[in-house]
Amino acid sequence: MRTCPWSCVVWDLDGTLLERGSPTPVAGVEALLAAWSDAGVEVAVATSATTALARRVVDGLGWSAWFGHVAGTGPGVAGKDEVLVEALLGLGRVLPDGAVGAAMIGDAPTDVAAARRHGLTAVGVTWSGTPADVLGGADLIWSRVPS
User: pTM for the whole thing?
Assistant: First the structure.
C-alpha cells in the first residue's frame, strides 16, 4: 500500500510507529512514511507521551521532514481525543471538515475511539500485540505494515 488512500494520516507513536516500549521503528514503517511523504500525504503524530518527548523521538529518527505536526500531552492537552484534535489543527485541519480524507492509525482502543468520535477512518494495528477484538470499532485492522 505505497499509495495512501487518505490525504491526511495521524499516527500514534508507541506501539504503532515504534515497537512498543522501544525507540526502534516498526519494520516497514520508514519505507511507508517515505512513500506517503513523496506522494504529498499530510502526516502527524498524536501520542499520549509529552509533546517534547515525541518531538525528540521524531527528530532523533530523522523523520521531522515527514511529519507536519507532532502533538502530545502537555499543559491544556490531555487524552487521545485532545491530542488528535491538536495534531489535525497543526496540519491546518479544523474539525469537522478536517476529518474528510483523514485516518488515525493506532494500536489502542483509545486511538480507534478518538478517530471514530471525530469522523476519521480508524485503523487499528495488531503488530504491537494488541488483539484485533480489542480494537473493536476500527474501520480497518492491519496485522503488519502495508507494503
Answer: 0.96
SS3 102: strand
pLDDT in tens, 31-40: 999 999 999 9
DSSP H/E element including 142:
strand 140-142
Amino acid identity, residue 97?
D
Q: Is the dihedral angle over the CA atoms 147, 140, 33, 8 positive or is it negative?
A: positive
Nearest to 124 by CA among 12, 35, 1: 12
Q: Count CB neighbours of 41 within 10 A.
A: 20
The C-alpha atoms of residue 26 and residue 24 are separated, in whole angstroms, by 6
CB neighbours of 78 closer than 8 A, spacing ≥ 6? none
In the beta sheet, which residues pair with residue 70? 45
What is the maximum span of the chain, computed from C-alpha positions, in angstroms?
Answer: 38
Please name which of 11, 32, 14 lies closest in space to residue 23, comparing C-alpha atoms: 14
Handedness of CA 43, 102, 140, 117 (dihedral sign): positive
Categorise residue 146: left if φ over 0, alpha if ψ from -120 to 50, beta otherwise.
Answer: beta
